[in-house]
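Figure 6 in text form: structure in, sequence out.
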């Protein structure tokens, strides 16, 4: 076990000392249940700044600058700059440096997957989450109680990161981005096949694929390569930095080129795949390409009205988050004594847990958005 000596900070100024443990303002009622005499909120609890561990005196994915932050993955609603010190996987630290600059935190430390670390009175381990490159579940244990906090997670195979590993825990904190039965996503390979079929059907049209710059863009490119597509993939300028970083970190993306249209050469992009931010698919920027096919890779494309409102001609249902079946199968497989639900459609998943005989509660945490999907 590693003692995290490099992450020695003071507790937040708002924290008061009580019964030997530092506690911020808690979102749970004082009569919260105990596990063999251990109060869950002494191990991990929701606060206005995000999840906080009184035992370890650290936050997980805090929404505001704190002294000590453990980060599950690099999406901007989970990984913010300005913390006193950050503990995360090497890949997530590289992503944060690429997005915010090398001085994004006062200090940083790499977490090794599966290696236990002692922080204060808590034992912490990082485990693969299958969400994006560098993503990790964070398990926090103290007093014999273990709580699993995966941030975002995905159960189906992801070509750019290690697969999710179920981690036994007493309390499982699950995301709920797609926690409604309507969100049952098709096989990802079938969606990529639809994109390739459209390229064959419309060889004179550029295909503009809207995708989030971290995770989704690289996944689409890697899946195209795995399906045999070997032509250059063109990148909007907002995509270039993170795609190059993925390649530096060992994710081969094949030939890439900037999506720059020279005067009078619009036709060079006929039949090409262009990866761009979703906001650009139906904007003026897209008009530089020949008769573009607006596409959007997102789990939200399951809702046809969303695709129609966004002007998307080719909706690709590709998600880096667990869908309804993955969420419920994960909870059933881990078998926790209690489930806490956050980041999305909390009530439906809490209800499912109740019907399955599993105590559950919504955390109602704010500051975590679903635009990344």
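Output sequence:
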């Amino acid at each position: 076990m590693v003692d995290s000596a490099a992450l020695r900070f003071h507790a937040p100024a708002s924290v008061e000392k009580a019964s030997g443990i530092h506690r911020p303002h808690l979102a749970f009622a004082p009569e919260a249940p105990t596990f063999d005499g251990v109060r869950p909120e002494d191990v991990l609890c929701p606060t206005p700044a995000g999840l906080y561990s009184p035992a370890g005196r650290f936050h997980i994915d805090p929404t505001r600058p704190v002294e000590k932050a453990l980060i599950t993955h690099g999406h901007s609603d989970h990984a913010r700059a300005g913390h006193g010190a950050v503990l995360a996987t090497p890949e997530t630290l590289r992503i944060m440096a690429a997005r915010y600059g090398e001085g994004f935190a006062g200090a940083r430390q790499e977490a090794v997957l599966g290696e236990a670390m002692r922080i204060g009175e808590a034992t912490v381990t990082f485990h693969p989450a299958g969400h994006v490159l560098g993503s990790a579940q964070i398990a926090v244990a103290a007093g014999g109680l273990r709580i699993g906090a995966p941030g975002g997670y995905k159960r189906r195979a992801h070509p750019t990161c290690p697969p999710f590993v179920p981690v036994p825990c007493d309390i499982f904190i699950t995301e709920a981005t797609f926690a409604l039965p309507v969100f049952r996503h098709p096989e990802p390979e079938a969606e990529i096949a639809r994109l390739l079929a459209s390229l064959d059907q419309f060889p004179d049209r550029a295909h503009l694929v809207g995708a989030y710059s971290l995770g989704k863009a690289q996944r689409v490119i890697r899946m195209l390569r795995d399906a045999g597509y070997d032509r250059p993939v063109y990148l909007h300028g907002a995509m270039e930095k993170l795609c190059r970083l993925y390649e530096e970190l060992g994710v081969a993306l094949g030939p890439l080129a900037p999506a720059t249209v020279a005067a009078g050469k619009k036709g060079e992009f006929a039949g090409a795949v262009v990866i761009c931010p979703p906001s650009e698919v139906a904007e003026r920027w897209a008009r530089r390409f020949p008769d573009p096919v607006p596409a959007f890779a997102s789990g939200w494309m399951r809702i046809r009205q969303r695709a129609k409102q966004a002007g998307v001609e080719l909706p690709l249902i590709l998600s880096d988050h667990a869908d309804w079946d993955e969420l419920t199968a994960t909870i059933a497989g881990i078998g926790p004594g209690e489930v806490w639900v956050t980041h999305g459609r909390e009530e439906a998943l809490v209800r499912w847990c109740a019907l399955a005989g599993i105590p559950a509660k919504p955390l109602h945490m704010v500051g975590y958005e679903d635009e990344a999907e």
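Caption detail: The two ends are 36 Å apart (CA to CA).
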